[in-house]
TrEMBL record:
It is found in: Cytoplasm. Involved in unsaturated fatty acids biosynthesis. Catalyzes the dehydration of short chain beta-hydroxyacyl-ACPs and long chain saturated and unsaturated beta-hydroxyacyl-ACPs. GO terms for cellular component: cytoplasm; membrane. The lineage of its organism: Bacteria, Bacillati, Bacillota, Clostridia, Eubacteriales. This is 3-hydroxyacyl-[acyl-carrier-protein] dehydratase. Its EC number is 4.2.1.59. GO terms for molecular function: (3R)-hydroxyacyl-[acyl-carrier-protein] dehydratase activity. Pfam families: FabA. It comes from Youxingia wuxianensis. Belongs to the thioester dehydratase family. FabZ subfamily. It catalyses: a (3R)-hydroxyacyl-[ACP] = a (2E)-enoyl-[ACP] + H2O. Coiled coil: none annotated. GO terms for biological process: lipid A biosynthetic process.
Length: 143
């Protein structure tokens, strides 16, 4: 059962369609950890061109999904309400499998370190328990 639906997510992060890339949040420890879901629908806009004969979700979009989940985690702290989390880096990232139409991504981010407005999170996206994308994402809070 969802802890946060899409409308509630939009109250925390500024992303909007077509670039709001998480559908719901299942678990949330503000400033520490988040688990979110993205349902990969067969009519997602990126499948029209990536690739028409073999639709695959671009790995960079999965990384963005993880970053948005991490932003929900960081911006859920009361002191960060109304701020924006800017994506500042990607390290140790591996795309381990294709993400296909009809699959569901589980997006997990654990904030490993923060110093002032800067933070680093360990990010893992899975499909049916199998790793799709792993890495470290960094962010800076602004506004």
């Amino acid at each position: 059962m969802a802890l946060l639906n899409k409308q509630q997510i939009m109250e925390i992060i500024p992303h909007r369609d077509p670039f709001l890339l998480i559908d719901e949040v299942l678990e949330l420890e503000p400033g520490k950890r988040v688990v979110a879901k993205k349902y990969i629908k067969p009519d997602e806009y990126w499948f029209k061109g990536h690739f028409p004969s073999y639709p695959v979700t671009p790995g960079v979009l999965v990384v963005e999904m993880l970053a948005q989940a991490g932003a929900v985690c960081a911006l859920s702290l009361p002191e960060n309400k109304g701020k924006i989390a800017f994506f500042t880096g990607i390290d140790k990232t591996r795309i381990r499998r294709n993400v296909l139409p009809g699959e569901t991504l589980t997006l997990e981010v654990e904030i490993m370190k923060t110093k002032g407005p800067i933070g680093i999170g360990k990010a893992v996206a899975t499909v049916d328990g199998k790793k799709a994308v792993t890495g470290e994402i960094s962010f800076a809070l602004g506004k």
